[in-house]
Amino acid sequence: MGGAGSGEGQGQILQRFPEKDWEDNPFPQGIELFCQPSGWQLCPEKNPPTFFVAVLTDINSERHYCACLTFWEPAEPTQEAVCSEDAAGREEEADEGGSGRLSPGTSGPPGQLFAPKTLVLVSRLDHVEVFRNSLGLIYTIHVEGLNVGLETVVGNLLTCIIPLAGGSQRTISLGAGDRQVIQTPLTDSLPISRCSVALLFRQLGITNVLSLFCAALTEHKVLFLSRSYQRLSDACRGLLALLFPLRYSFTYVPILPAQLLEVLSTPTPFIIGVNAAFQAETQELLDVIVADLDGGTVTVPECVHIPPLPEPLQSQTHSVLSMVLDPELELADLAFPPPTISSSSLKMQDKELRAVFLRLFAQLLQGYRWCLHMVRIHPEPVIRFHKAAFLGQRGLVEDDFLMKVLEGMAFAGFVSERGVPYRPTDLFDELVAHEVARMRADESHPQRVLRHVKELAEQLYKNENPYPAVAMHKVQRPGEASHLRRAPRPFPRLDEGMVQWIVDQATAKMQGAPPAVKAERRTTVPSGPPMTAILERSSGLHGNSARRLEVVRNCISYVFEGKMLEAKKLLPAVLRALKGRAARRCLAQELHLHVQQNRAVLDHQQFDFVVRMMNCCLQDCTSLDEHGIAAALLPLVTAFCQKLSPGVTQFAYSCVQEHVVWSTPQFWEAMFYGDVQTHIRALYLEPAEDRDPSQCASEQRRLWPMLSREKQQELVQKEESTVFSQAIHYANRMSYLLLPLDSSKSRLLRERAGLGDLESASNSLVTSSMAGSVAESYDTESGFEDAETCDVAGAVVRFINRFVDKVCTESGVTSDHLKGLHVMVPDIVQMHIETLEAVHRESKRLPPIQKPKLLRPHLLPGEECVLDGLRVYLLPDGREEGSGGSGGGPAVLPAEGAVFLTTYRVIFTGMPTDPLVGEQVVVRSFPVAALTKEKRITVSTPVEQIPQDGLHLRSCTFQLLKMAFDEEVGSENAELFRKQLHKLRYPLDIRNTFAFTQGSAHTPGRPPRTAKDKGPSLRTLSRNLVKNAKKTMGRQHVTRKKYNPPSYEHRGQSPEDQEDEISVSEELEPGTLTPTSALKPSDRMTMSSLVERACCRDYQRLGLGTLSSSLSRAKSEPFRISPVNRMYAICRSYPGLLIVPQSVQDNALQRVSRCYRQNRFPVVCWRSGRSKAVLLRSGGLHGKGVVGLFKAQNTPSPGQSQADSSSLEQEKYLQAVVSSMPRYADTSGRNTLSGFSSAHMGSHVPSPRARVTTLSNPMAASASRRTAPRGKWGSVRASGRSGGLGGDVGSRLAGRDMRGPPQANGAPPDSGFPRPQRAALYIIGDKAQFKGVRPDPLQQWALVPIEMFEARQVKTSFKKLLKACVPGCQDFESGPTFLRSLEDSEWLTQIHKLLHVSVMVVELLDSGSSVLVSLEDGWDITTQVVSLVQLLSDPFYRTLEGFRLLVEKEWLSFGHRFSHRGAHTLAGQSSGFTPVFLQFLDCVHQVHLQFPMEFEFSPFYLKFLGYHHVSRRFRTFLLDSDYERIELGLLCGEKGERKGPQACRSVWEYVDRLSKRTPVFYNYMYAPEDTEVLRPYSNVSNLKVWDFYTEETLAQGPPYDWELAQVSPEPPEEERPDGVELQRLETELGRPPERWKDNWDRVKAAQRLEGRPDGHGTPSSLLVSSVPHHRRSLGVYLQEGPVGSTLSLSLDSDQSSGSTTSGSRQAARRSTSTLYSQFQTAESENRSYEGTLYKKGAFMKPWKARWFVLDKTKHQLRYYDHRVDTECKGVIDLAEVEAVVSGTPTMGAPKTVDEKAFFDVKTTRRVYNFCAQDVPSAQQWVDQIQSCLSDA
After folding, report:
1. What residues pair up with 299 in beta bridges, in sequence order?
2. What is the pTM assigned to this prediction?
3. Distance (Å, rounded) from C-alpha 1079 to C-alpha 1060?
4. CA angle 1160, 1166, 1167 (to 5 degrees)
5. pLDDT (tens digit, 9 = 90+) per residue, 723-734?
6. DSSP letters spanning 1308-1357
């Protein structure tokens, strides 16, 4: 653009020739914009002339080519720039200039500006080279000043004659000594591309051009950018050439002027070119695909999806294109490449590329002529394309690309243009008809494909250049740099008169000549072979073998022969076979054979079978009916019928209406056109003739011109009346299938069938009119039927009318006939409604088909039915169990039965629908509380195959109910079921849950207690709390002694002393035994203190401080129990009693707590018995806090805020924790860890305690631990320095796999610190909260930043896990595989992280450093990690008792939010289900798998807790903290219970009760090593999917509600004989009691003897497997059957049960309590002699049978309630025994026993009375006791 004076101007036309428009060719408006598309501007220097061709499209879609040659002339300073213009008739010409005003001061050469002037040639013909030459000639004459009149040249140009006929040529001259040859292409329909396609590929590359090609075909907006106008028009021309044989029918502007850029925001598709200078203006276009020709890129916006070509065409096309464009690619890898490669010329390459696309279209549209419907032949052909059939037969129904192409405008044009049967044909017609087989055969031979492409390219080239040799042009050109010479004069104004005279002369000459008519060779278009699928896909599961079709045929013949039983047996197989297309076609053909004269009357059963099979066929039909199944059945549904009563016949159509295909207008249109075609063909063919419709039509079109006018009229009339009669026929057919038999069901039908959606866009039918009529009907019961019926009638009439309008106008029915039809339709509908009423009335009288009896489910005590059984079908979901999939087994699903909703569960019970499976019961249930997803679905019932409403319920206990309601269940009932379910799932208040309401007579919604009530409970609580905690601790060693591992026993006194203390005590009161047992009313203490006791009991066991305030005691204890939170004032979610350092005062704790989220300040929760390191837990830090200490180390200024003082308190607090650790306490102040004992610093001094192994010396570690060093820890142990666990252990541990950058947690040792220091306390926290923290070398604590997941990630991960394990759909092929979905869920990755962090903490604690876990709010992941660490470190927690204590302490007391995470109430509904506890159980399960001998509980116990922590059956896992439980009075509610057997409120109590009956919670392989610290592998490859997620038993439902799992009806609990009774009975029968325990002991003893010839050394061979790493993992499975239990021991480690020993059935049913005592196996318990004796209780108490054990080692006679009890009821110390004498029976003694069987034992305190079962055993007891005494 120019200098000072330049500016935007406006072009103006100077001259145009001819001055008046030609009649057939108006002058295009706005042409001046296109001559200078970038705007008219002046320019400071003279540019060379430019040439390009713009394309304009007029209102009739005719294209006008505007060739523009622009040159520059000096602008006069004051002049308005001059303009001239020519126009031509065949070719018009114009010429324009820019107007720019210049200030007068800029005249003269230095500021000279140049204005553009353009010569324009406008033509409807496309001869670019001729345009270029002609305009160039005019310019040359002007510039070079040749002696030729410009007027003559222009006149000749306007009048030269261009040949019309295909493939002709003509030489023209414009009278300036020039010669040009014009050639016309052979076939007009083939586009002319010159080199444009090849250039397009060169500029953009294969992939980009392919995506532009797909975009243009699927009607997206395409914009080309380039700096060259000629390139823009070439690119657009190239893209259009590729689309052949389709024509682009949207906006097409190869060069868009700058002034018209707003055209780009048009909503319609377009192909437009714009100068790259305007790229910025195109940036904000959101849905435009931009192709930058100069940069070679194609940018597709995010919101645009371009569907790719269907495979395999996409990849085939791609490879052929690369062979054409880059022939060297094939040879690039050859060792000896050929010396030269012949590459085609650009013009030839262009044709080869087009040939590839031509082949592509031939493959895509192969067989399209078979889907054309000839609706009319005369007077003009009317053709419709059957899209659905085409897609179906090509197997491309799902293909997005082809679907869009067929729906597009271009294809509609293709059908109307190429569908005509009699017309000129071209290359494409030949290709698609004759070359398909060849293309198919060539697919796998690239060279043959290339040969074919080259042949096609030759033809295309020949079409464009019919006479290649003659193309000799002779045209003068201007000299080199002629544009720089100053032109002698501006371009002159031409003499219009002269030009007009030349034109007139030529016109006069031509008048005599005959008009040029293009001769057309018309032929019948060949149809080609019938179509085939584009890719032969096997239809997956249902490959239709001949066997399947045979089954279908047999079943139908049985039905029509009346062999109903045979047919019934085959029916399920037939219904399965009908999933395949061939079987459905076969069914339609077979049924056709049984129809005579359009009618087949059947009996009721036959009718029922036929209808079922039809429904099954139709249920898989999409609305398109692409396989023609509905089309084949349509004549049949009006043929099959059954007589209901004289004069009333029911046709099959009334039973198959519920399918979406009937309400699809496209289906009816295709059917209609197909039938019309058949009838019209019949008009012209003799009955014997069999020719396809298009041949017939072609013949008729050929004869048409030869017919007389009358004959023509007659044919037109015949055709029209044929169409009309078909329209009436179809109006009837549609009314049959759209009017429901029972008009009350109409609402259902219409909502489903979508008639409403067709009712205008606003769906007015269903919304307004429906709603109105229904609303009225509820008030006034009358008139309901009529309102409803006429409403349906109206909808159907409108639907049919719309159809009739469309098809009749398209197929040329006269308007009179159409009016007649509109009058007829309502009558047809009304008549049909009347017939249906009678049919409906009569059909109700038919005896109903017998349905199976509903099976009532077993309910728990206290469980009540809310909704009684609704009949449903349970459908198979994605799991294979029960559906007879690849896993085999009978197909128990689908099953038919009923769904029950109770206060506790959703239960389905039923029987399989497949009669061959037999009478099996199918039960699937889950607790209402576990429901995570509920959605309505529409599914087909498995038997009748009618679409029905269904529900899809998924639960977090990994159950899924996919149900279809039976038609007898109304939609109201289904809705009621959903509402009730929702109400039960999300009660308003926690008190309304099953755990509270079970078995209680009062109404669920009882008013909450008043606030006044709460006060006292909290007050009494705080008063009693401390008192009770002391009491508990006082008795602690009495009750819990047995569980202490030996290492703890040495803490205070020797075990003997403890025993002495106990020896006096008689049977202890129940209150001290288990926290859930009843308390004496005198105790008056709240239940919360029992929970406190759970904590306190554990603190006492760990030796973590006392409650006493006496100074003497306090000094020795580093920690104390602080009652500071007893009113829950500091932290609501913490327990009332907390362990804090001795030195910290209670009042400081309040301030410390402010630094932590939720006030959860660090408290001790566990102490290692060996290294004395402690484990602390807390919430994450607030902004200030520890991090503050680590950041700026400035001293506090006097006026400091409270926050700073609290962070100081916090520093003091952490210091107190560090100094309370024994080995830091003696080193003063902020010393480094120089006080470390040598053993712990890892130097090679032999350590005094051999068991302590440090991480620094890998060899020592592996020797002293029984486990070899795991690879996991290699990096930590084997660090180069001698102090292996240096200051940066935390970072190394944290950096491993936690994705955090390594961060040193201690400065490198300098001269002041001779040894690398190890921190006394590691703080593990979120990486985010430690940002910007500088480690301080003096601190004795170190930060370990780790990156953990958040609770919401657990939630999303669980959702995906649930979908993977319980997929909702049965589609095995389409969905991702189970393993892929499992990986996507990232569940195992989270488990890996948890285990990884936990093992890291275990290592740190084991090495003597304390650890504070401070993650998130301290109640989710913190709890998981802390619990896992304790479980791995302390064998006590791996016992049943210990695990319970762990859960009570860490999860319940420390406030894991069970209600919030489990979304227990309506308030929590939005937060969703987040299974934090379940994830912890999964981690425990992973450890259990790796160390099966270390856990006393079985894997079933973990599943049991996993199931019941969400089931809300027990109160244990309700609410979010102890505080809430007390507030609700939950923890006080257990007083005075035990009056009678009652539902267990606590899950622990239930476990205890159940354990007495069955050993299901015990792990038979339990054989712990005393001090084993477990270090499981945590890599994802080592983790297994928990079978809790995948297994299910359909026979009885989930096995976790034990009462229900016993299928045989059992006596209720109170009548069941309990253990003591059984023993008494056994004793009376004189049968020695034999239990599973004895069998087990015998097996173990035998194994032990075999394994130890020397009597010591290795443990039993049975219990040690040869797994590497000394990991003792072997599988023992305890499988609970309905009766008894099977014990299978597998000795090989690959979990296949090798040998199975079945314990006796009776033994398993007997009451069994625990297996054996906790840490010593039964043998090592020194049972010198044992057996049953009756013992008389203390004064006034009855005789009772007890199990006595004489222990010679401990010198005791102990007694237990049962043989297998671990809790001893009392002890008689033999040291106190004075004499053993014979006794006498007293009142209440057993009657049947001999008097001599009684004996007494006298001690210093009292006399014990005993009675044995018989005299010999009494004698034996007396002898044994005597011998014990004499030994002493």
Report:
1. 290
2. 0.55
3. 27
4. 135
5. 999 999 999 989
6. PP-TT-SS----SEEEEEEGGGGTTPPP-TT-SEEEEEE----HHHHHHH
